[in-house]
Design goal:
single chain, about 260 residues, alpha/beta, 2 domains, four-stranded mixed sheet, 9 strands, binds adenosine-5'-triphosphate, binds magnesium ion
């Protein structure tokens, strides 16, 4: 059976095509202004990579912030559910998922079947999200892909005490002006995000089997900062950004089989 999941995030749109228990192809595009157009483009790209046509898909499910803009399916599912399903499929022992995307971060607690037991998120606040990191990286003229590795080379983490993104940004700017070493500032920024996620994570209990999803999981410095704060190893999928779309594909498959 061939199915697809699409996750229209605030920054990126992801598609996963699944055949039975195998991922056939994936695509990731910038969401931009036109959610519907990009959703179609991302789907076409994933279909092309898998040498398939849309008619060969038995079912599709959309998730993410822009799920309603998808015109080729009416099946939608919440992000919480999809990230939990995707993470559980990749790591069946997972009991907690930390998803940090561009504009939202979430901590989800799941049971042994991968069902959501509880979750918490910070949808209305920029601190603790990818966009905050992207803005800070830009202010420091460091490509976002390099932030993680550089932060690991810090000597003394710069203190960023304010939890609000607006004030944290001005703290970063004053560190830059004071000549605080770049890697120390980067480590301080990641530490401040880790503090925030730590608070959310604690509200969801103290599970050890933590999986991180979303684009920010590609930032090794963020993963290490969270591991240090939580005191546990964090499992990161090979492609953490597509986990929500993968979960949507798994749900699409269940719709067909039940
Ligand atoms: N190669 C990379 N290295 C480090 N960070 C990255 C990389 N690629 C993406 N990111 C981070 O991932 C973020 C985007 O994550 P993601 O694609 O999961 O967001 P989204 O799903 O569109 O957002 P949301 O779930 O909040 O709607 C970016 O803001 C950036 O900080
Ligand atoms: Mg997302």
């Amino acid at each position: 059976m061939i199915v697809a999941g699409i996750d229209v995030g605030s920054l990126t749109t992801k598609v996963v095509i699944l055949k039975d228990d195998k991922i056939l192809s994936t695509s990731i595009l910038s969401t931009g202004e036109e959610g519907a157009v990009i959703a179609q483009k991302a789907m076409d790209e994933a279909l092309k990579k898998a040498s398939l046509s849309f008619d060969q898909l038995e079912n599709t499910v959309a998730t993410g912030y822009g799920k309603k803009s998808v015109t080729f399916t009416d099946n939608t599912k919440s992000e919480m559910f999809c990230h939990a399903k995707g993470a559980h499929w990749l790591f069946p022992f997972a009991r907690k998922v930390i998803d940090i995307g561009a504009e939202s971060s979430k901590v989800i607690r799941l049971n042994e079947r991968g069902d959501v037991e509880d979750f918490t998120g910070n949808d209305k606040c920029a601190a603790g999200t990818g966009i905050f990191l992207d803005t800070m990286a830009k202010a420091m003229e460091v490509p976002i892909e390099e932030v993680g590795e550089l932060s690991l080379k810090h000597e003394k983490k710069a203190s960023i005490s304010n939890m609000c993104a607006v004030f944290a940004e001005s703290e970063v700017v004053s560190h830059i002006h004071r000549g605080t070493p770049r890697n120390d500032i980067l480590a301080g920024i990641l530490e401040s995000i880790a503090d925030r996620i730590f608070g959310m994570s604690n509200r969801m209990g103290t599970q050890n089997d933590v999986v991180m999803t979303g684009g920010v999981a590609k930032n090794i410095g963020m993963v290490r900062a969270l591991e240090e704060k939580l005191g546990v190893k964090i499992w990161v999928p090979e492609n953490p950004q597509i986990v929500g779309a993968l979960g949507a594909a798994l749900i699409a498959r269940n719709f067909v089989t039940v």
